[in-house]
Write a structure and sequence with these properties.
The protein has 283 residues and is of the alpha/beta class. It has eleven helices and nine strands. 39% of the residues lie in helices and 20% in strands. The radius of gyration is 19 Å and the shape is globular. It binds pantoate.
Length: 283
């Protein structure tokens, strides 16, 4: 990877880190990268340090051959798929951690150590690929904010680009984990986005109390037969501080289990005449 990188002259190198199980959401990242960069590198690596359950790690969808074919069809220049031994050789002991509010709540609270694993692996991948721009999905809004913070704090010169969530026709955000849902779980999983979107609509109609909107999301998910809400929270989209009442921009984020499959999603609520929808941009 380093040898290839040192030979690249002229034009930006763009990078899309993934854990494989590629779907249209990932491909939208590679397409954005392709449109803006001379070279596109995609990594496929199921990073063990960001899983806090051995079962979840074991079940995570893997199909490198299929992923490689999809990336080739997209014109990706380099598929980087390191092994566990290469990424975490015997004696490995160094971790990168973003502290404070950004990692304290939501997925940080329900998956202890998760973001430490993400920032460690992304930091290692940045060192190996040395990208000019790196692309991440807004479905993982907290991860995106944590990586932006890490890039800033650690003086990375890489530009972090957030790309809007890609959804199925019924609103379900595309995720590699969707492949693990049974038919009935898949039917119920659409409620995750529906509940978040209902909270957004209710906010646009005038409801400003976060607990009312959060309870609305919880009631809708917990009413389902095979679902269990892990969290539904309204937070500042930049700092991830919980909000008691809505601000101009508030992120409604939720995580829920459908059967044994954990899914996350979020919706940006913009009030005071601002357009609603996905949140984007670069830093
Ligand atoms: O979003 C993901 O797929 C992973 O968290 C990432 C960024 C590739 C790090 O393993």
């Amino acid at each position: 990877m380093r040898r290839w990188r040192s030979r690249q002259r002229g034009g930006a190198v763009g990078f899309v880190p993934t854990m494989g199980g590629l779907h249209e959401g990932h491909l939208s990242l590679t397409r954005a990268c392709r449109a803006e960069c001379a070279r596109v590198v995609v990594s496929v690596y199921v990073n063990p340090t960001q899983f806090n359950s051995a079962d979840d790690l074991c079940r995570y969808p893997r199909n490198l051959e299929r992923d490689a074919a999809a990336l080739e069809a997209e014109g990706v220049n380099i598929l980087f798929a390191p092994s566990d031994k290469e990424m975490y050789p015997a004696g490995y002991s160094t971790y990168v951690e973003v502290e404070g509010q950004l990692t304290a709540g939501l997925c940080g609270a329900s998956r202890p150590g998760h973001f430490r694993g993400v920032t460690t692996v992304v930091s290692k991948l940045f060192h190996l690929v040395c990208p000019d721009r790196a692309y991440f999905g807004q479905k993982d809004a907290q991860q995106l904010a944590v990586i932006r913070r890490m890039a800033l704090d650690m003086n990375w010169s890489v530009q972090i680009v957030g790309i809007p969530t890609v959804r199925d026709s019924d609103g379900l955000a595309l995720s590699s984990r969707n492949a693990l849902l049974s038919k009935s779980e898949r039917r119920q999983a659409r409620e995750l986005y529906a509940a978040l979107d209902a909270a957004r609509r209710s906010a646009l109609e005038g409801e400003r109390r976060a607990f009312v909107l959060q309870n609305g999301i919880a009631e809708r998910i917990n009413a389902l037969e095979n679902a269990r809400l892990e969290y539904a929270e309204l937070v500042d989209p930049d700092t991830f501080e919980p909000c008691a009442s809505l601000k101009k921009r508030t992120l409604a984020a939720a995580a829920a289990y459908f059967g044994s499959v954990r899914l996350i999603d979020n919706v940006l609520i913009e009030i005071d005449g601002a357009a609603h929808g996905e949140h984007g941009g670069t830093s």
